[in-house]
Amino acid sequence: MERDVKRQEEEEDEEDVKGQEEEEEEDEEEDMKVQEEEDEEDEEDLMGPEEEEDDDEEDMTDKGVLGHENDDDDDEGSKTGGVEEEKKGGVRKRTPGIIYIGHIPPRLRPKHLRNMLTPYGEIGRIFLQPEDGVVKKKRRKAGSRGSNFTEGWVEFPDKRIAKRVASALHNTPMGNKKHHRFHSDLWSMKYLHRFHWTHLSERLVYEQTVLRQRLRTEVSQAKRETNFYIGNVDRSHSMDKRRRKEEAQGEQLVEKSWDFTQRQTEEEIQQKKRNQAKARFIQDKSQSTKSNQDKARLIQEKSKSNVSLLAKIFNSSRKQD
């Protein structure tokens, strides 16, 4: 069972890799077409490319999104989680910041996300959460090969730039131009305060462990069910063989029967209580009648003794007379 599961997982991974490669090729072709169309539109526009770039930079500075990075960053500071840069003759430590993206459009890849966010500031690490395997299998049955993503995290070396980007791009279109493939989708961003990349790594490790544990329990449950089914089949075969043997010998097979005690219903419990009360009433009544009869018998015996005593008294008085 474990080998079959591993083989199935390897086949699914190979299909995912093939599907992703095909989707990447299609994405590159579409990007080339969109780029050619944008170049043609730019040539037709009255404004030159240099003026457009200046206008874009002015718009970004008005929004407070465009961040200025220093290329001469210290390697040691980046390893410890902070990047140092010079500012007005002093040294300022830049703390990394992470943005959470709650909506990832279909066919959006990490390279697309990096290209779309790079103009706003320096980008660090990017992680996109793949969709669930059940949803993926349903899409495969429908004819779609590639895999989509549900949510993502983007790391900026400077948390101030991350805050600006999250506040400026939230609920805005992803594409600046109408012909952009993700123009109809909106950014869903949120800056995560006091959240580090190690927290995300720990969460991913925990999810992987939970997934492995669940897979292990499912495999063990399947093994138990299979063994139980095989045992029942073997037992039924042995019973059939024994029955045929006894029938051939002319003996009658006595089948075992099992009796199971069932819990009484509420009506049966109430009926039992009524019967007990009735029997108790009859018993008390019979005891009371018996005691009354005993009392009457005692009174009668006493009256008989009194009659004999009176008879003796009166008879003696008559004899004296």
Automatic annotation (TrEMBL):
The UniProt record lists the keyword Transmembrane: no
Q: Locations of Acidic residues compositional bias?
A: 10-60
Entry coiled-coil feature ranges: none
Q: Where is the composition biased (Basic and acidic residues)?
A: 292-301
RNA-binding in keyword set: yes
- Keyword tags: Nucleus, RNA-binding
Any one of the GO BP annotations:
endonucleolytic cleavage in 5'-ETS of tricistronic rRNA transcript (SSU-rRNA, 5.8S rRNA, LSU-rRNA)
Q: Which GO terms describe its cellular component?
A: nucleolus
Compartment(s): Nucleus, Nucleolus
Question: Which stretches make up the RRM domain?
Answer: 97-178
Region (Disordered) location? 1-91, 265-301
Q: What is its main location?
A: nucleus
Tell me the domain of life.
Eukaryota
InterPro entries for the chain: ABT1/Esf2, ABT1/ESF2_RRM, Nucleotide-bd_a/b_plait_sf, RBD_domain_sf, RRM_dom
Q: Which GO terms describe its molecular function?
A: RNA binding
PROSITE patterns xrefs: RRM
Which PANTHER family does UniProt cross-reference here? Answer: ACTIVATOR OF BASAL TRANSCRIPTION 1
Family, according to the entry, reads as follows:
Belongs to the ESF2/ABP1 family.
**Which protein, by its recorded name, is this?**
Activator of basal transcription 1
Species, as recorded:
Gadus morhua (Atlantic cod)
Q: In the record, what lineage is assigned to the organism producing the protein?
A: Eukaryota, Metazoa, Chordata, Craniata, Vertebrata
Task: State which gene encodes it.
Answer: abt1
